[in-house]
């Protein structure tokens, strides 16, 4: 796994709430008649594969079969809102017998198969700002949130260690930022409670070259929505949401319920915020491609994380 993301690029440290008893704290890293054959489209993005596939089955049934038979690293799937068809993506690492298996499964469920450019991976790399459970790794703060008078920030689960572990504002581990309050690897989001009272914690995103952009609400987002994201490695980038409730099979585990976009990201951007105007949408999970040639990036849902942890923007 490539390591790093930054606590700063997302901008602002958030308020962490007291996590309700019902919210489990788990250690990060424990992630959780035949239709015609699909066509693999090289360079596939969300808009690729515009022709409905005859014989497609209900998405819930299709997802269950894909999880059982095609959940290999380097794959992802979601439902195309234009026609309700399931789309399966494979990255450059999926080949040979694994590609045959994914192709056969896609055929059985009537899904479209597209080729994702590059390699699906967590957006982590060595660097500075927010340092957590990955040795030498940095990440980006997502959104500052709070519960009553307790402040937290949301970020990605793969950016931090187990519940109770410490995160730092510097790579040497001398400036304590807070402690991990809760982690949900299956959705790739985490809650960190601030313990450093000296750090300002505005409910805003620090946009490079612009300054603080207030964040006043959270929403699930919708396909076609114009969005922006910021990260420690590549700064501010823009694009649109191309899919919702996507499942991605990374090399180190499977994550579900993700927002799919055509916004690029690179190692070090993980955990950073996806937003539209003043609305929080998600935190960078991973993707493929880069910000030179373009790419696909997936985000965990900010509104789902806030609901689970009992926190909110302010």
Q: Topology, pairings included?
A:
Blueprint: E1 40-41, H1 59-69, E2 75-79, E3 86-90, H2 96-109, E4 112-115, E5 121-122, E6 125-126, E7 137-138, E8 143-147, E9 150-155, E10 166-168, E11 176-184, E12 189-194, E13 204-207, E14 211-214, E15 217-218, E16 226-231, E17 235-250, E18 253-261, E19 273-276, E20 279-290, E21 294-301, H3 302-309
Parallel strand pairs: 1-4, 3-4, 15-20
Antiparallel strand pairs: 2-3, 2-17, 5-20, 6-7, 8-9, 9-12, 10-11, 11-12, 13-14, 16-17, 16-19, 17-18, 18-21, 19-20, 20-21
Structural descriptors:
five-stranded antiparallel sheet; 314 residues; disordered N terminus; mainly beta; 21 strands
What can be said about this structure in brief?
The chain has 314 residues and is mainly beta. It has helices at 59-69, 96-109, 302-309; strands spanning 40-41, 75-79, 86-90, 112-115, 121-122, 125-126, 137-138, 143-147, 150-155, 166-168, 176-184, 189-194, 204-207, 211-214, 217-218, 226-231, 235-250, 253-261, 273-276, 279-290, 294-301. The strands form 4 sheets. The protein has a 6-stranded antiparallel barrel. A 5-stranded antiparallel beta sheet has the order 8-9-12-11-10, covered by helices on one side. Strands 6-7 form a two-stranded antiparallel sheet.
């Amino acid at each position: 796994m490539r390591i790093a993301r930054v606590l700063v690029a997302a901008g602002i440290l958030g308020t962490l709430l007291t996590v309700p008893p019902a919210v489990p704290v788990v250690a990060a890293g424990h992630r959780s008649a035949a239709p015609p054959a699909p066509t693999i489209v090289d360079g596939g993005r969300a808009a690729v594969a515009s022709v409905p596939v005859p014989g497609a089955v209900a998405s819930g049934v299709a997802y269950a079969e894909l999880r059982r038979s095609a959940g290999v690293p380097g794959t992802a799937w979601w439902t195309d809102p234009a026609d309700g068809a399931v789309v399966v993506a494979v990255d450059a690492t999926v080949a040979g017998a694994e590609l045959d298996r994914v192709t056969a499964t896609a055929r059985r469920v009537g899904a479209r198969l597209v080729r994702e450019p590059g390699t699906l991976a967590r957006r982590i790399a060595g660097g500075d700002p927010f340092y957590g459970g990955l040795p030498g790794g940095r990440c980006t703060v997502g959104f500052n949130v709070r519960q009553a008078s307790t402040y937290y920030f949301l970020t990605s689960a793969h950016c931090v260690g187990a519940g109770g572990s410490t995160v730092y504002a510097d790579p040497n581990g001398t400036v304590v930022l807070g402690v991990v309050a809760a982690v949900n690897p299956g959705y790739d989001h985490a809650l960190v409670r601030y313990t450093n009272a000296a750090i300002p914690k505005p409910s805003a995103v620090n946009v490079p070259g612009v300054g603080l952009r207030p964040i006043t609400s959270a929403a699930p987002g919708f396909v076609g929505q114009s969005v922006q994201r910021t990260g420690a490695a590549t700064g501010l980038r823009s694009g649109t949401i191309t899919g919702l409730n996507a499942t991605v099979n990374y090399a180190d585990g499977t994550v579900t319920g993700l927002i799919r976009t055509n916004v690029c990201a690179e190692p070090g951007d993980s955990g950073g915020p996806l937003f539209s105007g003043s609305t929080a949408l998600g935190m960078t999970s991973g993707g493929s491609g880069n910000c030179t040639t373009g790419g696909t990036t997936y985000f965990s849902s900010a509104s789902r994380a806030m609901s689970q942890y009992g926190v909110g923007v302010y």
